[in-house]
């Protein structure tokens, strides 16, 4: 398991103007740390360090050790605001992790055994993913980096729903508690599109012309 550590600096200069100056002058990213029994705290992070961490998929659903002016606390990345046209992070939100308190996190789905999927190998179907991540709830100690979706035994025209996922111990999907309507599809195997035979089309056209 990868360990993520970020270094942040507490900041008192708040507001949109201060955030713009921070990004422009020091290549820093404004952020906020909230949750737990502490008051929300505004911080800034080095853009290069944050961008490097964001290249790893696990960072988005992993407990991060955030050092703010030398004081470390465990956090989760909860939100990112990106520039609409440039590859730049404008703002980040971090949630404090409290031992013994459940967290709700979006974790990626990893689709396994697609190459031996029954619906593909025997039925000639095609796999479609309707979701790439899922919201889970668990204690921090049980937080998985991803959830596996085993496609091996999925047949042609079959659908994998949220309720079909095998979750690690201590992990739940909150939306399932809201009723059957929230048991959304995750993936399916559907027939390949049938391409019309050019010969048949030509013969049909010629026949119509002869009839005229």
UniProtKB/TrEMBL annotation:
Subunit text: Part of the 50S ribosomal subunit; part of the 5S rRNA/L5/L18/L25 subcomplex. Contacts the 5S rRNA. Binds to the 5S rRNA independently of L5 and L18.
Q: Name one GO biological process term.
A: translation
What is the official name of this protein in its record? Large ribosomal subunit protein bL25
Looking at the UniProt record for this protein, which Gene Ontology cellular component terms does it annotate, in alphabetical order?
cytosolic large ribosomal subunit
UniProt domain Large ribosomal subunit protein bL25 beta: residue ranges: 102-192
Highest classification ranks of the organism: Bacteria, Pseudomonadati, Pseudomonadota, Gammaproteobacteria, Pseudomonadales
Tagged with keyword Iron: no
Q: Which InterPro entries match?
A: Rbsml_bL25/Gln-tRNA_synth_N (IPR020056), Ribosomal_bL25/Gln-tRNA_synth (IPR011035), Ribosomal_bL25_b-dom (IPR020057), Ribosomal_bL25_C (IPR037121), Ribosomal_bL25_long (IPR001021), Ribosomal_bL25_short (IPR020055), Ribosomal_L25_dom (IPR029751), Ribosomal_uL5_bac-type (IPR020930)
Q: Which PANTHER family match?
A: RIBOSOMAL PROTEIN L25/GLN-TRNA SYNTHETASE, ANTI-CODON-BINDING DOMAIN-CONTAINING PROTEIN, RIBOSOMAL PROTEIN L25_GLN-TRNA SYNTHETASE, ANTI-CODON-BINDING DOMAIN-CONTAINING PROTEIN
Q: Which Gene3D superfamilies match?
A: Ribosomal protein L25, beta domain, Ribosomal Protein L25, Chain P
Region Disordered, residue ranges: 192-212
Similarity-based family: Belongs to the bacterial ribosomal protein bL25 family. CTC subfamily.
The record's listing under Pfam families reads: Ribosomal_L25p, Ribosomal_TL5_C
Q: Which GO terms describe its molecular function?
A: 5S rRNA binding; structural constituent of ribosome
Query: Which part of the chain is the Large ribosomal subunit protein bL25 L25 domain?
Result: 6-94
Q: Which HAMAP family match?
A: Ribosomal_bL25, Ribosomal_bL25_CTC
Q: What ranges does the record list as Acidic residues composition bias?
A: 197-212
Describe the function of this protein.
Answer: This is one of the proteins that binds to the 5S RNA in the ribosome where it forms part of the central protuberance.
- Top-rank taxon, per record: Bacteria
Q: Does the keyword Amino-acid biosynthesis apply?
A: no
Give UniProt keywords alphabetically. Ribonucleoprotein, Ribosomal protein, RNA-binding, rRNA-binding
């Amino acid at each position: 398991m990868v360990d993520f550590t970020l270094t942040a600096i507490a900041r008192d200069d708040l507001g949109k103007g201060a955030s713009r100056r921070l990004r422009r002058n020091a290549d820093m990213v404004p952020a906020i740390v909230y949750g737990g029994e502490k008051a929300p705290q505004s911080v800034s992070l080095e853009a290069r360090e944050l961008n490097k961490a964001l290249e790893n998929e696990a960072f988005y659903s992993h407990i991060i050790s955030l050092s703010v002016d030398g004081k470390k606390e465990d956090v989760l990345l909860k939100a990112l605001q990106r520039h609409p046209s440039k590859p730049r992070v404008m703002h980040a939100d971090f949630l404090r992790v409290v031992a013994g308190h459940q967290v709700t996190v979006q974790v990626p789905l990893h689709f396994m055994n697609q190459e031996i999927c029954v619906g593909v190998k025997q039925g000639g179907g095609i796999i479609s993913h309707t979701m790439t991540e899922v919201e889970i709830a668990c204690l921090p100690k049980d937080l998985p980096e991803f959830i596996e979706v085993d496609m091996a035994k999925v047949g042609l025209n079959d659908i994998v729903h949220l309720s079909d996922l095998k979750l690690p111990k201590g992990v739940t999907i909150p939306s399932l508690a809201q009723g059957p309507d929230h048991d959304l599809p995750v993936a399916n195997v559907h027939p390949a599109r049938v391409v019309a035979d050019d010969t048949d089309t030509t013969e049909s056209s010629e026949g119509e012309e002869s009839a005229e």
